[in-house]
Amino acid sequence: xxxxxxLFLNIDVMMRTWPLLMSGLWMTLRLCAVVLGLGLVGGxxxxxxxxxxxxxxxxxxxxxxxxxxxxPPLVLxxxxxxxxxxxxxxxxxxxAVAVAFFLNNSAYYAEIYRAGIRSxxxxxxxxxxxxxxGAAQTMAHVVLPQAVRNVLPDLLSNxxxxxxxxxxxxxxxxxxxxxxxxxxxxxxxxxxxxxxxALIYLAFLWPMVRLVSRYxxxxxx
Length: 221
What we know:
By secondary structure, this protein is an all-alpha fold. Helix content is 82%, strand content 0%. It comes from Plastorhodobacter daqingensis.
């Protein structure tokens, strides 16, 4: 038992590596903010394109969504980080991770938005158009607010997945939380920093999980 505590729950090691893990957490939060912000916007544009009456816009959007959803995010990340330099485009680890996860999450957000838009009764849009609103105004002021409210638990749930997805950034040596914890483990020859990183993830994600569950129960009622 003493050996287990010394190797996995060593408070002294955790305290000494705490600044390094906080630096990794800050990088994780920055990455999440960029990926979530871009993903929400990109997903909305993809969803609107996929629901367009114009076939030349609709079918390419469907193809992009299916391709990005089918491709593993780790494969996409390695392709962008390691493949683009061969085309003469150097890219930083942060930019590579942000682009890869933005593309991946845009596809999932697009499907969530589409489900939300379809959940709004057609009569809502027809009434808005009859009152004199244009198509864009109807979508922005009538349909989208209701659609987002209907799929808010799914949007929040995907945000949780984005936070967990950032741990893959350690593959390209981006100094996020997991990478920092692994570096601390290598420096101290002790696994306690990894346990501390797991606790930080838990403390960060648990409130989000509970919030998703709360909204799901609220919508069910």
